[in-house]
Write a sequence for this structure.
């Protein structure tokens, strides 16, 4: 079982979108039994809140199912519970390193590091552009799933 944790600042926009996009891709590819996928925040600002209405609207528009979700904060102990801990931007990465203290097993990365064009995913909380966020998240999740297939991590 591959355990993936997506991380963003508040766990209501990007990481939640990545969680459900990745779950949908995994399910459609027939690999659902091989993955555990979740998302969390580095901050406490949105704890307990549901996904942002912009994320919900975009996922509905794309036909991507969502499960009940409330924002939760990542803790140091979560490092041991996941194989891949994936942030959305450099700020998230710095906060992940602060929370975990170090990354001895090289579990930490950014989602778009798996693509041919690594970059940050802009936060739609500020930009309001959930379409661009969805395009980036989809690109990253597709590249991540391809990575697992290419590396023989799933059959």
């Amino acid at each position: 079982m591959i355990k993936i944790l997506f991380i963003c600042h508040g766990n209501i926009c990007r990481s939640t979108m990545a969680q459900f996009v990745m779950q949908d891709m995994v399910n459609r590819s027939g690999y659902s039994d091989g993955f555990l996928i979740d998302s969390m925040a580095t901050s406490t600002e949105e704890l307990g809140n549901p996904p942002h209405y912009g994320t919900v609207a975009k996922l509905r528009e794309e036909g991507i199912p969502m499960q009940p979700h409330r924002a939760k904060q990542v803790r140091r102990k979560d490092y041991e519970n996941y194989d891949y801990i994936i942030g959305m931007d450099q700020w998230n990465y710095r906060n992940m390193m602060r929370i975990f203290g170090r990354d001895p097993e090289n579990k930490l990365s950014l989602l778009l590091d798996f693509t041919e064009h690594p970059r940050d995913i802009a936060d739609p909380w500020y930009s309001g552009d959930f379409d661009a966020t969805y395009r980036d998240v989809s690109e990253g999740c597709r590249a991540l799933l391809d990575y697992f297939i290419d590396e023989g991590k799933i059959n």
